[in-house]
Design goal:
The protein is of the alpha+beta class. The strands form eight sheets. It has a six-stranded mixed beta sheet, with helices on both faces. The protein has a five-stranded antiparallel beta sheet with strand order 13-12-11-14-20. It has a five-stranded antiparallel beta sheet with strand order 15-19-16-17-18, with no helix packed on it.
């Protein structure tokens, strides 16, 4: 199929230096339904406005059917846009709202009548020509806005969160109607949303964005089943994401256990394992690959959402079988239910908290640290933490992340040398050093890089220099 739109190295930087879009590359085929998906402020609407001609890119090219259209004004582009705010003319009836653009083009009345009737049939509002806009529901007004765009027979229809103002039921109905319209018309739709369900329901291709950059482009199935990084996995549907390591041929270790998987990744590679909640099966404790305690159970209508705590890990399970809080259960994951992503960086991150003395808990001890450096604008008086407004902060409810690189940790066979003891559960020779995974007595799995050769299951002491440790507040 021929390409209709190409965006090449598009960057948009505003006067204050803020880069809304960076190095954006995308090819859209004629007749595709493409969705820009991402959180607010990720550059979706800015990209759409550049395609429409309402914004000019700072650099890069926008090609329509192979021709550069950056100097072409919006009204000269074969592109129409539907906004979240319908922008209908309140003083005009439905017919005149839809016919407005055609009248500007000075088309004959017969042609206008024929085109308006066709799009009214398409949006299932035939016979509404003389109704006032104010008498329509939100869903009907949105259909009129879509009809007004379609009547001009654009090559491309841009839709900027068009269903955002509708209630949940109407949104679901309009999703199906829009998909049907697309199938009937065969024109190219480019759609903007932050709603993952909308994107998965309607799209041929999804472009997942964050901070002005593309994380992944693919079909809904690809995006859901094969996320390229932790952001995509976390943003598209619910996911369990666990740090781990490849321990053999299609074998991976996370959550304190070894699993078979289907991804062929080099032995010893640090990875993130993505497991969808529906792919976790609850079994009896003795039959599970891992064992845990049910922490919460929520009925979601078609399934139960169950949180199981196993050591330091929380695992979300979606199942039709009910469990009770406090139950000890086993969990099993089939190889096809584990998706392996190469870890973006190799850093041990340990989630922790502070005690009543505002000391940071770390493994089997505490770290002296200045909590006001971690929480900007905060102060401590008489052991009480306050924010910039003077309000008391319950520090013991906050969560912190302590980080340490594998190469900054040493191992010893002398218990008194280190801050925690643990067993070596994996080792890989990396050419100039060994990479170890140590299961500590406190339940963490810590990566260590060491030039010396140790043996599997050696009981070692981890020496972690205080000056090599960094810490920060966990993001909500």
């Amino acid at each position: 199929m021929a390409n209709i739109i190409e965006l090449k190295n598009i960057t948009k930087t505003f006067e204050d230096g803020y880069a809304a879009v960076e190095e954006f590359n995308l090819t859209v085929e004629k007749g595709e339904f493409v969705t820009f998906l991402g959180p607010s402020g990720c550059g979706k609407t800015t990209t759409l406005r550049m395609i429409a001609g309402f914004e000019n890119p700072t650099s890069g090219e926008i090609l329509l059917n192979g021709e550069d259209i950056q100097k072409l004004p919006p009204e000269k582009r074969p592109i129409n846009t539907v906004f979240q705010r319908y922008a209908l003319f309140p003083h005009l009836n439905i017919y005149d709202n839809i016919a407005f653009g055609l009248k500007i083009k000075k088309m004959s009345k017969d042609v206008i009548d024929r085109k308006v009737k066709r799009v009214l049939d398409l949006v299932d509002l035939e016979g509404f020509e003389n109704r006032k806009v104010s008498t329509l529901s939100g869903g009907q007004q949105q259909r009129i806005a879509i009809a007004r765009a379609l009547v001009n027979e654009p090559e491309i229809l841009l839709l900027d969160e068009p269903l955002g103002a509708l209630d949940l039921q109407m949104r679901k109905e309009m999703q199906l109607e829009l998909k049907n319209m697309h199938d009937q018309l065969g024109i190219t739709f480019i759609y903007v949303t932050h709603d993952q369900e909308e994107a998965l329901t309607m799209s041929d291709k999804i472009v997942v964005m964050s901070h002005g950059k593309i994380h992944q482009i693919g079909t809904p199935e690809d995006i859901y089943n094969e996320p390229k990084d932790a952001f995509v996995a976390d943003f598209i549907g619910e996911s369990n994401i666990f740090g781990g390591v490849m321990t053999g041929d299609k074998k991976v270790r996370f959550c304190g256990a070894e699993f078979d998987c289907v991804d062929d990744v080099e032995h010893g590679t640090m990875i993130d394992a993505v497991v969808r909640p529906e792919d976790v099966m609850i079994t009896s404790p003795d039959q599970g690959q891992i064992k845990g305690v049910v922490d919460s159970v929520i009925f979601k209508g078609v399934h139960y959402e169950i949180v199981v705590v196993s050591g330091k890990n929380e695992i979300i399970v979606q199942t039709t079988k009910k469990a009770e809080v406090g139950d000890v259960v086993g969990l099993c994951i089939e190889p096809e239910g584990i998706h392996i992503m190469i870890a973006e960086d190799v850093v041990n991150r340990i989630e922790t908290s502070v005690n009543s003395e505002l000391e940071l808990k770390f493994l089997e001890g505490y770290l002296d640290f200045d909590i006001t450096e971690v929480i900007p604008g905060s102060t401590v008086e008489d052991g009480v933490l306050r924010n910039t407004h003077g309000d008391v902060i319950d520090a013991e409810k906050l969560r912190f992340i302590v980080s340490i690189k594998p190469g900054d940790i040493e191992m010893s066979d002398n218990e008194e040398d280190g801050v925690v003891m643990g067993h070596i559960t994996s080792l890989v020779y990396k050419g100039d050093h060994y990479s170890y995974l140590v299961q500590t007595d406190t339940g963490e799995e810590i990566m260590v890089d060491d030039e010396d050769l140790w043996n599997m299951d050696d009981y070692v002491s981890l020496i972690i220099p205080r000056e090599k440790v960094s810490y920060g507040l966990k993001k909500a």
